[in-house]
Amino acid sequence: MADAGRPVKHSLTLRGHRTSVSLEEAFWQAFRALAAAEGRTLNALAADIDAARGDVGLASAIRVHVLRAAQAARSS
Predict the structure, then answer these.
(1) What's the DSSP call for residue 55?
(2) Is the pTM of this model over 0.85?
């Protein structure tokens, strides 16, 4: 098993272009669960996050998106 604090790199396809993203395994698991709960593919969710991220790195934008989704789920 990978070190929980060490980022793991995976490839995503965003609007037809391949890119690599490094996230800690806990974030990958939460990101996959969020996409599944929304009935979306991981690539589709990542593409939406990418389109809205501005000048923030994609990995950071994904982490923030996952965190906000978890906070929203706890408060509802």
Answers:
(1) T
(2) yes
Residue 56, C-beta contacts closer than 8 angstroms, at least 6 positions apart: 64
Residue ranges per structural domain of the chain: 7-75
What are the residues whose beta carbons fall under 8 Å from the beta carbon of 46, sequence distance 6 or more? Answer: 12, 14, 21, 58, 62
- Start-to-end CA span in the chain (Å): 33
Walk along the chain (76 residues) and give the pLDDT tens digit of each residue.
556 689 999 999 999 999 999 999 999 999 999 999 999 999 999 999 999 999 999 999 999 999 999 999 999 8
